Amino acid sequence: MEHQLFAGVDVASRKLDVCVVDTKGNPVCRELRVANSPEGFAELQAVLATLGAPVLVGCESTSAYHRPLLRALDGVADTVELNPLVIKRFTQLQLRGSRSDRTDANSIAQYLRTFRPKPSPVTETKRRDLTMAVRLRRRRVEERTANKNALRRYLGELLPGFHNHFRRTTPLWLISLFAAHPCPAELLALTPADLATVRTPGGRSIRSSELEELQGFLHSSSVEPWSPLLRAAVGQLLQDVVRAEQAVRELESLLEEETRTLPECTLLRTIPGVGALTAAVAIAEVGDVRRFPSVDHFIGYCGLYATSKTSGDGKTTGRMVRKGNRMLRLQLLLASTTARD
Fold first, then answer.
1. Of 87, 136, 243, 247, which is the most exposed, with the fewest CB atoms less than 10 Å away?
2. What's the rounded Cα separation, in Å, for the pair 276 and 253?
3. pLDDT digits 0-9 by tens, 35-78
């Protein structure tokens, strides 16, 4: 469809500023400001319906503020989600001295008129849900890692020799024991019979050999008595680690169930190294792979290419770039490691 009108929308949390221009860049109606709400979407739909010509509507990607608008305009007008950095550079080329929400809406409309980007398909409900779940899981993983690192530092200071005994990582069974009894004196008084009520976030019981290992370490370490304040501080950190671990496991279980219902995930899992989580991340972050003109464009989106410098006949290849979709790049690298093993 050949678009004859171009509507730029500057999106804020509570309002939308709209500017519509024709193929020559001239405004075709007064600048519009509506609420970023269902009522505002209905008002904007009514205005677009009165224009009497095919309209291309564009807005910058603004986390979650713009997505309800795009879903509301689905079927009413072609829409496109734009990179804010692209609009920023385009605005700079216009040499405009001052900026406002209205001028930003005009810049978006002028960009649409100049470059005529292809309309973006509205995110399907299943992909939207999958995207929210995989991104929330990633945040929980980062929280878990940060809390476990902090816990390891604290225990290394409070329990001499801790880093030498538990070299690589702090075992989950140890965290579960400390979370249930956040004091060395209590841990030393435990018996195998007391382990019946202690479980790891995965539901595994604590073995008596693990309790013996911990108690043997505590006996050999000159541990000072912990004050109530210290017990409370370490106990809160332990609970944060356990909660994050439980949240990650729950989300991974739900993602495993969801991927069984998606034919695309079933196909992706036939690739060596690709499991349920990698397939879910790929579907959530990539969407329709046909939107990439070539394999090189897809590799660039993933950030899976190295820097290179060319001078004369020489070419130097450096480290991998720190660009592209961070979550997708990390998950694909983990999948490649699994495939190699």
1. 136
2. 10
3. 999 999 999 999 999 998 999 999 999 878 999 999 999 989 99
